[in-house]
Amino acid sequence: MKEDVLEIGVPSTLDGSLEQSLFLLPANGVSPVPLIVALHEWSHDRFSHEKHMPLCRDRGWAMLVPEFRGSNLTSNPRARQACGSRLARQDIIDAVAHVLARFPVDPTRVVLFGASGGGHMALLTAAFAPERWYHVDAWCPITDLAAWHGLVRPDGTRNGYAPHLEHCMGGAPGDSDALRRDYAERSPLHHVPEFMRVRSLMLHHGKQDVVVPYSQSVALYDALEARRHPNLYLELFAGGHGVYAREAFNRFDALLR
User: Fold this and answer.
1) DSSP assigned state of 161
2) Smaller CB count within 10 Å for the chain: N or C?
């Protein structure tokens, strides 16, 4: 890691565990600067956004990359605490509060950004603390975990992530009423009223995405559009499962002037 990237530990306000994040504060960050909170993908950890740090460094912006209990994989010993749990959501809020209290970061220009599992987590965290964010930017997000668990792809294969999802949740959504409720609680689509208090929200999804179908983004967009969310955007692009980070940051340039 470069010298301007810090490894910080923040105690959870829920269970007291020391949770790690990466924090970039550019050398010229002496006056309050925008903060990009970048959330890692389903199978990754806080180091997955190191490749995007130059986009903040070049602009003089700060970037925070929380671990939020690690990947959503069977290999993660803390998987039951990951995947949108209350603990994972609070870890992100705690990390943001930590850097706002200690570094020259502008609390009015905090952007939440993530793709795939990170898009799922960005949306879920936005609903968890809707007034905290200046803008929320989610790429190819999972918005309904139960529907995604039962996904059958165009070639007839089932969702290969389903076993990992069951490991995180403790079973399949149909195994019990308690699990059905927990899948819903960890699904952004079931938090529509909270999203109405999010200042600005943009969803991006590839129309050829076979990992997370674009219908996941459309379902959330339609639910929010029906309530007339004032700053809601949906971009369906010709592509698969992924994020165009440079394009995202170019949009942030206009938003954060």
Assistant:
1) T
2) C
Q: Could you count the other beta carbons within 10 Å of the beta carbon of residue 102? A: 11
Identify the structural domains of the chain with CATH numbers, from first to last: 5-255 (3.40.50.1820)
Task: Return the minimum-mean-pLDDT range out of 61-75, 98-112, 148-162, 225-239.
Answer: 148-162
pLDDT, residue 257, reads 84
pTM of the model: 0.96
Tell me the C-alpha to C-alpha distance, in Å, between residue 194 and each of 35, 112, 190, 225.
22, 16, 9, 14
Could you tell me which residues come within 8 angstroms of residue 90 by beta carbon, excluding any fewer than 6 positions away? 12, 13, 14
Q: Which helix (H) or strand (E) holds 205?
A: strand 201-206
pLDDT tens string 39-51:
999 999 998 889 9
Q: What is the pLDDT of residues 130-165, one digit of tens each?
A: 999 999 999 999 999 999 999 988 888 999 999 999
Please report where in the chains the tokens 């209290």 appear, as a residue: 101
Instruction: Indicate the pLDDT class of residue 219, thresholds 50, 70 and 90.
Output: very high
Helix (H) or strand (E) holding 62: strand 62-66
Q: How far is the C-alpha of 189 from the C-alpha of 175, rounded, in Å?
A: 21
C-alpha–C-alpha distance, residues 113 and 55, integer Å: 13
- Token output for 220: 């959330």
> How far is it, in rounded angstroms, from Cα 112 to Cα 134?
8
φ, ψ at 200 (rounded to 5°) = -150, 130
Extract the tokens encoding 134: 């200046």
The DSSP secondary-structure symbol of 181 reads: H
